[in-house]
Amino acid sequence: MARFWAKFIDEKLLPTAAKVGLSTGKEQERANEEVHQQLKILENELNGKDFFAGHSIGYLDFVANVLFWFHTEGEVSGKKVLTAEKFPIIYEWIEKLIKIDVVNECRIPKEKHHDYIKLRQKASKSAAS
């Protein structure tokens, strides 16, 4: 089952999220709504569990750590896709993962991640003008 969800993230959620960043107007609104729907599907999979595999961290938790990108991007841009109000279960899951040393060892340092996002946003704005 973990492979199914990994494929869902890789082939559905990530391309749709990329559309949000690359589009404007109505197309961006549609892509944003689709991302929200896909996040709700993932949240339903997490419901009632500490981690995707249950009570311990597993393969899918590492695959799904791309959700940190949504979380961090919101911190930088102020456009928060992942909020505790909209996605309380995913938000709580992220907070649990942040407390695990092995996860933090695999993550990009926060300052570098913020710098990368700012650089990417600046490049995107330059390309659009």
Set out the fold topology.
Elements lengths: L1 H21 L2 H22 L12 H5 L3 H11 L10 H11 L2 H6 L3 H19 L1
Question: Over the alpha carbons, how many angstroms does the gyration radius reach?
Answer: 15 Å
**Which descriptor suits the 3D outline?**
globular
* Beta-strand content bin: under 5%
Structure annotation, total helices: 7
Average pLDDT, to the nearest integer?
87
Ends distance: 44 Å
Query: Could you estimate the helical fraction of the residues in percent?
Result: over 70%
Order of helices and strands: HHHHHHH
Structural class: mainly alpha
Count all strands and give the number. Answer: 0
How would a crystallographer describe the biggest sheet?
A: none
Low-confidence stretches: none
Provide structural commentary.
The chain is mostly helical and 129 residues long. It contains 7 helices and no strands. The chain has helices spanning 2-22, 25-46, 59-63, 67-77, 88-98, 101-106, 110-128. The longest helix is centred in the N-terminal third of the chain and has 22 residues, at 25-46. The radius of gyration is 15 Å and the shape is globular. The mean pLDDT is 87.
Short summary of the structure?
By secondary structure, the chain is mainly alpha-helical. The protein has 7 helices and no strands.
Core attributes:
single chain, 129 residues, mainly alpha, 7 helices
